[in-house]
Amino acid sequence: GGTWDLFRYPGIRSDSDMSTFGFNFKPWAKDKVLASGAEIKGYLSDVISENQLKDKIHFGHRVLSANYDSTKKKWLVEIEDNNKKKQTWSANFVMGCTGYYNYDQGYAPKFPKQEDFKGQFIHPQHWPENLDYTGKKVVIIGSGATAITLVPSMVKGGAGHVTMLQRSPTYIATIPSIDFIYEKTRKFMSEETAYKFTRARNIGMQRGIYALAQKYPKTVRRLLLKGIELQLKGKVDMKHFTPSYNPWDQRLCVVPDGDLFKALREGQASVETDQIEKFTANGIQLKSGKHLEADIVISATGLEIQILGGVQGSIDGKPMNTSQHMLYQGVMVSDVPNMAMIIGYINASWTLKVDIAADYICRLDSEGR
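User: That's the sequence. What structure does it adopt?
Assistant: Structure tokens below.
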């Protein structure tokens, strides 16, 4: 299940449209633009079932190390199962498809006096099962994709009040939850043709918006801020949504149908731009002097970056220093035989690049024999 099984916080969803986030060979057959974690997990299960892949996947195994033996021209991969039994597999070629973060723990900075807090302190990567936040005062630390998803979802789930506490603002764009053009085209096109059309259109839009942001940052900034201002309708100070950087200097966050702004407008949620001085028994003391009362604090502070899932790579027993290697075409690792790392796009849907990388590896394998 990976990401879409591990993450179970309220509202967990994609932050890319599913026509481009889904696989090229498997049309996303729904008109929802963003899918929930459960829907994506179901989509992946269908891909596995339809392509008879389950027997090719070894569940409950952890790769500990991978060493390239230049005399044998083989990779020797040390693996441990859930029973702590170790074994060594050999391979001609190794592909790192582990993503870019640590699945065991998220990035959770220690805050001053955090131990004094008497309420619940939670990181979204390890959401407690059956957490009851009905009527509770919730503070969410962060302003990225996770935070802006949690705020409206927890409001909808019955939280008494939700406060998003951010150190600095993020650009947030509103997109429709339903792709009405896809919905219409499906009526007179085959599902596959409608999907291809929608996918091509959305890829073009992604590339176009990014290119505009790079060439005309002030114009794109003005448009984004105007869109937010229209959503807030004067109910929230725009200082909380006016970043100091240009659009797409960091990834642009999106919300479906402006659900975050609706929660803020209606007073069920609020936003604070400040820094944490310390935790108290019943909340957070800010450097401005303001105190935020909280029953639950959620640290949506991001992921802990980890390359190759923490696997120690080596060549003839000499450890690899990943910072000293380059990726050719964003795939092949320099000075490392028969090894690829699959890294997606940071300014478009992740899987678009994965599709291209997979095709590249297949061509390499075919032509290199």
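The mean pLDDT is 94.
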